[in-house]
TrEMBL record:
Carbon 2 of the heme B porphyrin ring is defined according to the Fischer nomenclature. PANTHER family: 4-HYDROXYBENZOATE SOLANESYLTRANSFERASE, PROTOHEME IX FARNESYLTRANSFERASE, MITOCHONDRIAL. Pathway: Porphyrin-containing compound metabolism; heme O biosynthesis; heme O from protoheme: step 1/1. The gene is ctaB. This is Protoheme IX farnesyltransferase. It comes from the Bacteria. Its EC number is 2.5.1.141.
Length: 311
């Protein structure tokens, strides 16, 4: 992490929007949604008040992770066009403030989740924050091109959290939800890395595109997408799956696999000619892919009381 001078770190008075941006609200949306789905589809009902408090704690914990990540990555964020306008490199929030906010929100969210739900879920939340802030941000991101693969676990923990809030433990269903996000993360981020171009190289981040080349990255996008398909389909045969989920999953995986094959077939000359249209399209598809899979699980749970959902 670079040392930012006081004048560089904070040149304008921050607003509430700047502090909110520090929490990575777009990432938080995915965390909250997948945790909420897992909580709602779990076999043990949760009181609405406890559920609401638990989801709020999970959201705050995700925001704390984002703040700690931005504090540590302020130097490389300043070098990438995609992140240069974040609160710290833009001079709106001082690094020390971000660190304080991240630590305070971490402690608050973990303790409150333990008191409101159970200490198993609180322990998972604590480990998730540690994994994202320390294992991924401080170690993996700058040391290995497998940063996205291993670090993807941080974004995959929310379903385990939601399930643990309801049941106090784990199951094959919760681990398959974890595996779905874990296997989805590499092709999602590598599709992005292909059209972000030199940002990661300029910042010294060993993304696969920089360390092994774009041809290897295209091969990996296809390989991980192929590995993702059976995980997504397997979830459809569990107690939280059903015909609706399985039918939608088949369609989504056919489309996603076709996109990955299209990326694999392209070379840089073709990609540059159309400004990476295919790569950008597959990246957008990857966003819908995950939300629709978890949305389908929610539909199955909603239909179950009427004898229409599940097997």
């Amino acid at each position: 992490m670079t040392d930012l001078s006081a004048s560089e770190a904070k040149t304008v008075e921050p607003g509430m929007g700047d502090y909110f941006a520090l929490l990575k609200p777009r990432v938080m949306q995915l965390v909250v949604f997948t945790a909420l789905v897992a909580l709602l589809v779990a076999p043990v009902p949760v009181h609405p008040v406890i559920a609401a408090i638990s989801i709020l704690c999970i959201a705050v914990g995700a925001g704390a992770s984002g703040a700690l990540n931005m504090w540590w990555d302020a130097d490389i964020d300043a070098k990438m066009r995609r992140t240069a306008k974040r609160p710290i490199p833009a001079g709106k929030v001082a690094p020390g403030e971000a660190l304080g906010i991240g630590l305070a929100l971490s402690g608050f969210s973990i303790v409150m989740l333990g008191l409101a739900a159970n200490w198993v879920s609180a322990g998972i939340l604590a480990f998730t924050i540690f994994f994202y802030a320390v294992v991924y941000s401080m170690w993996l991101k700058r040391s290995t091109p497998q940063n996205i693969v291993i670090g993807g676990a941080a974004g995959a923990f929310p379903p385990l959290l939601g399930w643990a809030v309801a049941t106090g433990g784990f199951s094959i269903e919760s681990w398959l939800m974890f595996a779905l996000i874990f296997m989805w993360t590499p092709p999602h981020f590598w599709a992005l890395a292909l059209f972000v171009r030199t940002d990661y190289g300029d910042a010294g981040v060993p993304m696969l595109t920089e360390t092994h080349g774009r041809r290897v990255t295209r091969n990996h996008v296809l390989g991980y997408t192929i590995a993702l398909v059976p995980v997504a389909l397997a979830l459809g045969f569990t107690s939280i799956g059903g015909p609706f989920y399985l039918a939608l999953s088949v369609l989504l995986n056919i489309r996603f696999l076709r996109g990955a094959i299209a990326i694999w077939r392209r070379d840089e000359t073709v990609a540059e000619a159309d400004n990476y249209a295919t790569e950008k399209s597959v990246f957008r598809q990857s966003l819908y892919y995950l939300f629709l899979h978890f949305g389908a699980l929610l539909v199955e749970a909603s239909l179950a009381p009427f004898g229409l959902g599940g097997w």
